[in-house]
Amino acid sequence: MNVFRLLGDLSHLASILILLHKIQTTRSCRGISFKTQALYVVVFLTRYLDLFLGDWVSLYNTAMKLFFIGSSCYILYLMKLRFRPTHDPAIDTFRVEYLVGPSLILALIFNYKYTLVEILWAFSIYLEAVAIMPQLFMLQRTGEAETITTHYLAALGAYRGLYIPNWIYRYFSDGTVDPIAVIAGLVQTGLYLDFFYVYFTRVLQGQKFELPA
Amino acid sequence: DDDTTRHDEL
């Protein structure tokens, strides 16, 4: 565990707390893509299977995994049941099969071991890399976002961004490289670049998040 | 050699 990894994880944790705060205080999930949130549930369930296989890493690791599974399921519940009328499926139109299908194919080709757990792990890494696309697509479509939603996205983007210096650190400190995680992580971070540009040049200057028409 | 690769990241 190094400082980049810890900050990355805390940023991930913060993003979920920001999202929960947004939904609870505005009593609305307007502007949030249900499809992206559903993909995260799939990502966590397929990646954290090791929880049930007795593959113990640390209390920190187990607690975080349980939190990510639990909170992502809770968010789906809030969106689908509790605040259902505030979710507009008409603008959440990205085709998730374009993300799930290729991720599955990639996982079948590129994995560390040809076992169910390892294929699902690789699948979860590839799927996570692109899971934000329905959300970004929705943002692009509506052309604007509530400020709190942009803070959520910024924290989520920072999480994978911070994993990059973590991997560089690990390469020099213990000589390990996880090519699947690194390549997918670079793609994932890259998807946020346009968003971050607008976030830094507008939202952090006190302006509303608006895309040029 | 273990049957699974050890993934210690989240």
TrEMBL record, chain A:
Its main location: endoplasmic reticulum. One of its GO terms (molecular function) is ER retention sequence binding. Pfam families: ER_lumen_recept (PF00810). GO terms for cellular component: endoplasmic reticulum membrane. Keywords: Endoplasmic reticulum, ER-Golgi transport, Membrane, Protein transport, Receptor, Transmembrane, Transmembrane helix, Transport. One of its GO terms (biological process) is protein retention in ER lumen. It is found in: Endoplasmic reticulum membrane. The keyword S-adenosyl-L-methionine does not apply. InterPro entries: ER_ret_rcpt (IPR000133). The chain crosses the membrane at residues 57-77, 98-114, 180-200. It is a multi-pass membrane protein. Belongs to the ERD2 family. This is ER lumen protein-retaining receptor.
